[in-house]
Amino acid sequence: MAVTFDDLLARARALTDGRRRALLGIAGAPGAGKTTLAGHLVRALNADGAPWVAHVPMDGFHLADVELDRLGRRDRKGAPDTFDAAGYAALLHRLRAEADGPDTVYAPGFERVLEQPLAGAVPVEPSARLVVTEGNYLLLGTGAWARVRAELDEVWFCGPAESERIARLVARHEEFGKAHEEAVAWVLGTDQRNADLVAGTRHRADLVVPASAMPVP
Which domains does the chain have, with CATH numbers? Predict the structure, then answer.
């Protein structure tokens, strides 16, 4: 039987008993639809009543451009070593460890227009019993990324048709200021190298989300 979006909602609800806080990861290559899926899940689950699901993107842990310039990695922005993976793992650990605490935990966000991280932009309230986080490298087994996977109850993998993913990614780069030729070159160069790396982690996922269950962007 084909997996539906309603099946995904039921599986997400089952991760928590309403008391403990659970962490759900959504992984996939650039342009795979991770953020769209996470957003739809959070909105649908919070429609049950009082908000109890938070969304914490991995993209807030991008290193700032000034640091990428210092490290000589600006032309590889988006690769695993252009993120603060250890900081991301530490935040996930804190979200679990302080699940019953009285304080709001703040996570960094990411401003697409500026293409820069923003500190303290994403609040996770004490009432959040499920945190949905998404990013490219949640299933990567090297370095600090291995600690990320250890903090997550489940990780789902988004793997749309490659032609659809590339078209979506080119359109995103154009939307945020790249000329068409520049967008295509980046997608088929830097982004594709990252996508190939992410594809190699697919087998580590608890669930591969079929295209039929993906919401329309």
Answer: 5-209 (3.40.50.300)
